[in-house]
Design goal:
By secondary structure, the chain is an all-alpha fold. Helix content is 59%, strand content 0%. The chain has one domain. It is globular and about 40 Å long.
């Protein structure tokens, strides 16, 4: 099978990890000198990109949930 989605950064995200660990990996894969807003936006976009291209339903569900978590944080949700 040909894989066409090639992420630029390896985050360490895995569907078998807990939500807190997955999200920590996503946020820690962004440069530390960026603002928290930009880091959360990038982490959310990376998770959303994974959710959009995967064919595995469990991965899609968890990646979409992680993306939604970061996007809610951007809107001021806790």
């Amino acid at each position: 099978m040909k894989k066409w989605f090639k992420p630029k950064v390896h985050t360490g995200w895995d569907k078998d990890q807990s939500a807190a660990t997955r999200r920590r990996h996503l946020i820690s894969s962004t440069p530390k000198n960026w603002t928290l807003h930009r880091r959360r936006l990038t982490a959310g976009r990376r998770a959303q990109a994974l959710a959009n291209v995967t064919q595995d339903s469990a991965t899609k569900k968890k990646a979409a949930a992680d993306a939604e978590y970061f996007f809610k944080k951007l809107k001021g949700g806790r």
